[in-house]
Amino acid sequence: MNVWMNGGGHQSCGIAALIALGELEPPDFTCIADTGMEQSTTWNYLDKWIAPALQERGVQVHRIFAKDYATVGLYGGADGDTLLIPAFTNQSGQIGKLSAFCSNEWKVRVIDRWLVKEHGVKSGTRWIGFTVDELRRVQKDDKKWKKRYPLIDLRLNRWEAALLVKRMGWPEPPRSSCWMCPNHNQTEWRDIRDNKPDDWALAVNFDKMLRDKDPHAFLHADCVPLDEANLDDMNESLFDRCESGVCFI
Ligand code: SF4
Known about the structure:
Radius of gyration: 18 Å
Strand order of the largest sheet: 3-2-1-8-9
Number of strands: 10
Largest sheet: 5 strands, parallel
Bound molecules: iron/sulfur cluster
Shape: globular
Distance between the termini: 21 Å
Structural class: alpha/beta
Number of helices: 8
């Protein structure tokens, strides 16, 4: 079984274009996980451009809700008290970053459970939308799932994936990620602040709410409240981005 883990972003739209153009055979399942916190623009774009084009090739996009299949919320781990998002912390006196468990818990495992429960599929090949400029993110196969990188197989970089989208006549895809993701860079935070006021308000409140439980947890790399953070490019953080293969693609 070929299962395409559609992340809703630029590279995933490149894969959609290849399928729509008949240059890539359709997968058996096209899945996109809905954490309940994805930026609104991702769904608008998917519904308007991607899903109809794939439908014409007989491909249905399955939007799978974390609220139906995830077993943890914002906190988990053995003690049920571990923050699952890669938030920043100044607890030690220096700024550090927590591990990201959210993409696995809210996306990968959610899709896995859906595949087992609804279709009896327990193994196969996962399609992931990395491009050749992201080779270091490529993951090894595991016992159940082989990995396939359709854009890397075709030696395409991000820019060439974007050209495929253009070739389809689709507008530039929005950035895909949860509105509160600590992995946002300065450009992404500014995009939410300046263009998506509802998502920004949710993120600012979420950031404050984090500190009700842990006064050292922040969404922004400066460890300041999000609505007080300096979002200029000159203030870009050097922390690593998401490596999961299901977010930001
Ligand atoms: S976009 Fe960010 S917060 Fe959302 S699941 Fe991915 S890593 Fe976690």
